[in-house]
Specification:
The protein is of the alpha/beta class. The protein has eight helices and seven strands, in the order βαβαβαβαβαβαααβ. It folds into two domains: 208 residues, Rossmann fold, CATH 3.40.50; 39 residues, no CATH class. Strands 3-2-1-4-5-6-7 form a seven-stranded parallel β-sheet, with helices on both faces. Its EC number is 1.1.1.30. It comes from Marivibrio halodurans.
Length: 265
């Protein structure tokens, strides 16, 4: 029986969705009737608690797959298990990401390899695996979490900026290859979002400068984000739902920025 929810009957895989932006995106989809496969790192008991709570709250089916985003075979399995569990796969959100900051000449090569693998290559492997399911369903939405750093650069973030610029290119190619099909591919490009990853950067700055966390948070925003406000995970979830809606049918291959004016400068 129809519920009036906009994504009834759809199924999604959201990578990196056990906390932060990914969890907010998964929640936004589930609240619109979409079955969701969570994925990410964390304590098994906490992940199960999160999964069960989201399923209860939304009334949608919510499952978890622990695929390691550095391993293509596990990524392919996550896609296959999502389609098997929910009878199809319609929405893929490539959100998993890690960060490390250092000047290029001091940048650990292992960190470079890991960031490129998780932030960029994983999206290629999941997209390749998901497209046949979307074609079978006759409908698909691929949304890649990029960043303001997919459009501009900052010092000490060589791997992250390279990966996010790469995601922009992968998105455009995917959009062109599916342009005549009912499948779209776009990026959401947040500015500063107060996730645990960003909180750690703020705390490190406060410790280094001998200032308060809130003072450093405002300084961080003032350097890049003209609004001087953090983008929220919930706002990004709303953008995702819009990109999965009928209204966004002709939006493909583009960045949707939510950066408080960062890249307008």
């Amino acid at each position: 029986m129809p519920t009036g929810k906009t994504l009834d009957g759809k199924a999604a895989l959201v990578t990196g969705s056990t906390s932060g932006i990914g969890l907010a995106m998964a929640r936004a989809l589930a609240m619109e009737g979409c079955s969701v496969m969570l994925n990410g790192l964390g304590d098994a008991a906490e992940i199960e608690k999160t999964r069960a709570a989201l399923e209860r709250e939304s009334g949608s089916a919510v499952k978890f797959h622990g695929a390691d985003m550095t391993k293509p075979e596990e990524i392919r399995d996550a896609v296959a298990e999502t389609a098997k569990a929910f009878g199809g796969l319609h929405i893929l959100v490539n959100n998993a990401g890690i960060q490390h900051t250092a000047p290029i000449d001091d940048f650990p090569e292992g960190k470079w390899d890991a960031i490129i693998a998780i932030n960029l290559s994983a999206a290629f492997h999941s997209t390749k695996a998901a497209l046949p399911h979307m074609r079978e369903a006759g409908w698909g939405r691929i949304v890649n979490t990029a960043s303001a750093h997919g459009l501009v650069a900052s010092v000490n973030k060589a791997a992250y900026v390279a990966a996010k610029h790469g995601i922009m290119g992968l998105t455009k190619v995917t959009a062109l290859e599916t342009a005549e099909e009912p499948i779209t591919c776009n990026t959401i490009n947040p500015g500063w979002v107060r996730t645990p990853l960003v909180e750690a950067q703020i705390e490190a700055r406060a410790k280094e400068n001998g200032t308060s966390v809130e003072e450093e948070a405002l300084k961080l925003l003032s350097e890049k984000q003209p609004s001087k406000k953090f983008t929220t995970p919930e706002q990004l979830g709303g953008v995702l739902v819009f990109l999965c809606s009928d209204a966004a049918e002709q939006i493909t291959g583009v960045p949707i920025t939510a950066d408080g004016g960062w890249t307008a400068q």
